[in-house]
Amino acid sequence: xxEEKNDKGGFxxxxxxxxxxxxxxxxxIRVRETDINFDEELHDEALEKVAQRLKELAEASQxxxxx
Length: 67
Fold this sequence. Notes:
Number of strands: 0
Largest sheet: none
Oligomer: single chain
Distance between the termini: 35 Å
């Protein structure tokens, strides 16, 4: 997965879902190194649920922008 960082080192919020996934990927790497109880499968399931919800919210807000 390509990182979605801007020139200043922060995440590019032009695509919030990609920014979320990039941040989550960095965090999962950090947690894998520090938490012996890290459950990668549970983590991946949670990421998918959050990404789906972000997509739904983005679609809903686009519908409201057209009014």
